[in-house]
């Protein structure tokens, strides 16, 4: 027994030495080690979790994932539409907008922090001492994406809930954080950083959105140059991110950020889903011509007075189209770098220009749905 204790103590000492190697800077070591408390807490939770609770850890790892964000957005949208009290519906709609803004902000900040810190995950530090549930991850531990997302869910729903609902939200965030430690995916410091980031992004979004509301209201029937500025911003953001990928990653290189998201550097000579990718070269000029023609039509639409949501949709699609046209003119192919996957099933890699086009199309769809529903109601009543 004494021999096992001594051997276990020696293994933990080696783990701390390994941690000091991967995080040599004193401030990094402080964030990650807490004077040995971080590893000690991880060991207590990870090894102290009985095997019977593994399904519970797996479940809260699932419901605390970014993959459930579409369900969260859909649920808030349905709640805002089905609310019988108009004030309640408005409050839910504001939380929906705030959650969407916080989600995008947190995704950007969390990715930047993971790449900047590049802290190792428990299996990389503790080896076989870390009990892992699921696939073993080694890099980009801080902050925990699951804890970040759980904190944003709590922040979005908190004002809408009563006492029991808020207690349930606190329990949800706690169990999501526990599940990441019990599964051997994160240290307690990662979970705490994720909670802090999620709450901070929610608070920041809640502070910024009221400030942006007057600008958004004034843009309802405003000059077309405002929307051309939105399109230009989309083009610049797209090209800057592609430039950073080209300068940072070798062609074909892949860096794992989360269990479901990689940063990659790939080139696509075709369109979406690699359409006409093997056409022989003529497709470059075809897509340049098509992109410029569509952009000219979108620009003409923006020169007319449009409702703000419709104009936002046109401007985002214009920015995304010009971003990919710029790639074909400058490089002959489109640079893609966002790779989402579930285990071995990968969604085709895409870029921020594609994101802008998708969001723009969604804006246009949302402008059509209310008109269609009103037309249907008129036919039924007639």
TrEMBL record:
It is found in: Cell membrane. It holds the Pfam family Peptidase_A8. One of its GO terms (biological process) is proteolysis. It catalyses: Release of signal peptides from bacterial membrane prolipoproteins. Hydrolyzes -Xaa-Yaa-Zaa-|-(S,diacylglyceryl)Cys-, in which Xaa is hydrophobic (preferably Leu), and Yaa (Ala or Ser) and Zaa (Gly or Ala) have small, neutral side chains. It comes from the Bacteria. It is an enzyme of class 3 (hydrolase). Pathway: Protein modification; lipoprotein biosynthesis (signal peptide cleavage). Its EC number is 3.4.23.36. Residues 97-206 form the Phosphatidic acid phosphatase type 2/haloperoxidase domain. Keywords: Aspartyl protease, Cell membrane, Hydrolase, Membrane, Plasmid, Protease, Transmembrane, Transmembrane helix. This protein specifically catalyzes the removal of signal peptides from prolipoproteins. Belongs to the peptidase A8 family. PANTHER family: LIPOPROTEIN SIGNAL PEPTIDASE. This is Lipoprotein signal peptidase. It comes from Enterobacter cloacae.
């Amino acid at each position: 027994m004494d021999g096992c204790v001594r051997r276990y103590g020696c293994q933990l000492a080696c783990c701390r030495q390994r941690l000091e190697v991967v995080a040599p800077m004193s401030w990094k070591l402080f964030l990650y080690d807490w004077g040995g408390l971080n590893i000690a807490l991880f060991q207590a939770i990870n090894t102290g979790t009985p095997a019977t609770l593994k399904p519970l850890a797996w479940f809260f790892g699932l419901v605390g994932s970014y993959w459930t964000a579409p369900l969260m957005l859909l649920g808030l949208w349905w709640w805002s539409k089905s609310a019988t009290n108009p004030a309640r519906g408005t409050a839910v709609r504001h939380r929906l907008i705030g959650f969407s803004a916080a989600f995008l902000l947190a995704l950007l900040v969390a990715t930047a922090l993971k790449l900047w810190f590049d802290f190792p995950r428990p299996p990389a530090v503790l080896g076989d001492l870390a009990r892992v549930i699921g696939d073993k991850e080694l890099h980009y531990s801080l902050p925990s994406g699951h804890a970040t997302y759980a904190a944003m869910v709590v922040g979005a729903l908190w004002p809408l809930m009563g006492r029991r609902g808020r207690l349930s939200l606190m329990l949800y965030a706690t169990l999501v954080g526990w599940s990441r430690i019990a599964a051997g995916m994160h240290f307690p410091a990662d979970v705490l950083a994720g909670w802090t980031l999620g709450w901070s992004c929610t608070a920041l979004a809640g502070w910024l959105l009221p400030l942006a509301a007057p600008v958004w209201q004034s843009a309802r029937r405003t000059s077309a140059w405002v929307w051309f500025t939105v399109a230009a911003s989309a083009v610049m953001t797209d090209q800057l991110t592609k430039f950073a990928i080209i300068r940072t990653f070798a062609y074909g290189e892949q860096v794992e950020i989360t269990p479901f998201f990689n940063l990659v550097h790939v080139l696509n000579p075709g369109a979406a889903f690699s359409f006409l990718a093997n056409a022989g070269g003529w497709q470059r000029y075809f897509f340049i011509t098509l992109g410029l023609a569509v952009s000219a039509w979108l620009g003409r639409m923006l020169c007319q007075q449009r409702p703000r949501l419709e104009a936002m949709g046109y401007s985002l699609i214009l920015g995304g189209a010009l971003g990919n046209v710029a790639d074909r003119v400058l490089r002959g192919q489109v640079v893609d770098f966002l790779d989402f996957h579930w285990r071995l099933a990968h969604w085709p890699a895409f870029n921020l220009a594609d994101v802008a086009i998708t969001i723009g199309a969604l804006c246009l769809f949302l402008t059509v749905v209310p008109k269609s529903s009103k037309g249907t109601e008129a036919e039924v009543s007639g």
